[in-house]
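User: For my dataset I need records formatted as: sequence, then structure tokens, nothing else. Please produce one.
Assistant:
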Amino acid sequence: MKTQVMATRTQQSSGIDPPFLSGAVAGAVSYLVGYILTLVVVVVAESDQFTNDLIESAGFLYYNAQFANVETSVDGGGAFGAALEQEFNYLTDSSLSSSVDAPAILYHLIPILVLVGVGYAVARQVHATDLVEGAVAGASLVLGTVVLALLGTFLFSLGGNGGSVSPVLLDGVLLVGLVFPGVFGAVGGAISTQVGSNQQQQYGRR
């Protein structure tokens, strides 16, 4: 009897453990899919201002869509040769939003919908059955997104004439790597358990 109780407790506790491998892979996939969709929108809708440096500009807008700023840095522009830095966001700064042709809401929706969808898929894959299990499974996307979000702050960088433009490191890791995938992945995972519960109830009635 005691053995059965212990086994039951073990199963219940293991049910909410993050699916580390699935979460890492799915998180990386969600980052890439979100970026590629953003790239497609830039190609289709934006002017030469963005398409001339297509790879990096799409990266800037992908990070901006998750409220991670981009910064310009000019070497030797300040006192004692210190770098001058300025942060901006093409989608939220009123002085720059007019330079973007596609609706800003479209860029914001891309990572949200992708993360919710992938979080949903991860929770279904690990057979999460309640809200907590689903949310934990969905939030495990951060295991993959945080690594690529960090790399992206270096890969999506433009340099020349003593200056550079790139996503802000802290913003990228915190918002693109942790907050957005953690929150919206969890939402997708939680939705998955509710959809599965409703389907079971419908089949039960039949």
